[in-house]
UniProtKB/TrEMBL annotation:
Residues 303-479 form the Helicase C-terminal domain. It comes from the Bacteria. This is DEAD/DEAH box helicase. It comes from Exiguobacterium mexicanum. Residues 111-263 form the Helicase ATP-binding domain. SMART domains: DEXDc, HELICc. Keywords: ATP-binding, Helicase, Hydrolase, Nucleotide-binding. The keyword ATP-binding applies. InterPro entries: DEAD/DEAH_box_helicase_dom, Hel308_SKI2-like, Helicase_ATP-bd, Helicase_C-like, P-loop_NTPase. GO terms for molecular function: helicase activity.
Amino acid sequence: MNWNPQDLLDIEHLDFEDSFSLAKYVSQIKEEQQIQANEIIINILEIWDKVEESTKQIWIDLIESAGFYPYLLKIVEKNSEMDITSEIRSAFHSSKKLQGITLHKEQKYLLNLIAQGRNLIVSAPTSFGKSLLIQEIIASNKYENILIIQPTLALINETRIKLKIFNNSYKIIVNTSQILGDKNIFILTAERVLEYDGLPKIDYFVLDEFYKLSSLRDDERSDVLNIALKKVLDFNPTFYFIGPNIDYIPEGFKERYNALFYKTQYSLVNSQIEHINISYQATGVRKQQKEKEEKLFELLNASTEQSIIYVSSPGRAYNLAKGYFDYLVHNDLLKIEQYLPLNEWIEENLSPNWGFNGLIKNKIGVHSGIIPKHLVHTMIEYFNEGKLNVLFCTSTIIEGVNTSAKNVFIFDNYKGPNELDFFDFSNIKGRAGRLLQHYTGRVYVFDNPPTTELIELDIPFHDQKIINDEILINFEREQVHAQHIERYDELNDFDEDYLKIIKKNSVSVEGQKEIIRQLETEIRVHPNNIIWSGLPTYKQLSFLLDLAWNNLLKPTETTFPMTLKKLPVSIYKHLNKSVSELIKEEIDYLEKKHVNWSSQKVTDAAIENVFREKRHWISYKVPKWLNVMDSLQKLVCMKIGLSYGGDYLSFASILENDGVEEELSLLIDLGLPASTINKIKKIIPSDLEDEDLVRFVKTIPRERIPSVLQYEIDKIQQL
């Protein structure tokens, strides 16, 4: 039989003749087309029970030749015995350090390079199993201090939970206040790497999602990541950078760091793309959008497998999830509701009327960057445990999150206000299917996909093609490329003591210089606006926020709906009121402003507004500014001969950690909700820190904390 691509996609069973013919075809595929051969083999694995029994040994040989050892053992253990040669090869690919783990061919190749101490930059699909090799690196027990940089705090806790299996060998550090152990695994964001004054020499360095180094990916944290990377590479560690869909790295980087760039499309999970063509019956954008949504809902309801739905923004994610729920109600398709521990927590701490609560009860989840970190983790946890059938997501799903989704629906072709590019499209697409759980992931695309393009990564601190002041100023002059020397000299034409602080803060250089000039004037006229500690007065806070807003915001940053006038008011509200009180207050405001809105719409909008404000401004942006301002004002005070200055750090910590005191902030980083900490803090001895603190919290008898909910107990058990 002559096999063509369409035939290969449509295979549902194989009789003797077709099975033998196809196996012969696969065995003759040229090496440079091996990806096609692998995809066919994965298709055969998908229909294994419908393959003619007498031909299966041929396919087992092909599975082995493809290096699919995890699948090989799964099949052979169930159906037959391996010959002695295959047994030897399979044993060779079994992990020597991790129990019950078998590596595929390319994982084994990379592990051998890792064992040789090679520096690796690996671009591979999501289903490749890149993160598993991090566990192999740790399990080798060769390194004293291992650093893993993750892009977000939410991913730090997810990584920490995965690596708890190494607690007997290493101390896991996620917070700059923790005491070092003899051997340490640091799991930090780039910001925390720069904040960590006592960071010891790093022996092994893992950079996850390394594409975030690019200045072209529109990530406001890329400068900080480049500066952190430069700092860590000065330790001369062995390193392992991982990410997807990168075709080229900057010229000279491999040679400079004696690294191997390893790009592969090797995967044990196929992606099957289906374009959803809708014959619109109506005209007009709104009506056609309704038809598009209706089509999505029909497909979701018809599926018996878990699905992720990608949309462009947090508001879209929630509204579309709510629309799907309404569709199920309208068509009498709802099944028996579940009641999970999170439902009880939401009812007690937020509002029993929040639509999100009803969604979860009906196995519909939402994953976005505005919901609290512990909720983000719980959404993924519930989804992977099968407690949610569908998960409506924004681009946060791109960032290293592994799920059990069989299907991915790319419903929007935007990421925020910008069109989805080929890199992000490919990354989202790669979330369909999971190694050893699905052979094929299905991707449903509602709009024309972006044009295929080769992705060349820029690394500003290395290639200096596009390099911002914040990175450039951290170089020695002899490291600066000729075209930047004049700018470099202008940046450094400033007081040396201030420059040390400016470099470390890694935010706008010119903005910090202007802040210093204004602080030097203000300290002589109104010193009380600067020299304070604890909680600031409204006037003191407004003065600092005005300086930060006007000098530290990037030109590309969107501040709407926040305003400079509103920001100090919002901060005091979040300091003095519980989340449920903030929500009630926002509900009252929205009811008066939007008299025609339903009570459900008002409640949902109020909670979204409170979450967005807290997550972006109160817990992230303002604490970051306060840390910068604190460092600058202390030096200004010292320069004019004062023996003391202000101290904003405890205030910054309270904002960053949901009102939790600094000495208990580690518990926030370890995934405990602030509600839980507030319930137990009175019985925690004041002298406990770090491991002793965690150990005490984990062993508190239930009868001593009767008000703690099951959801909160679950989080305590994850410490």
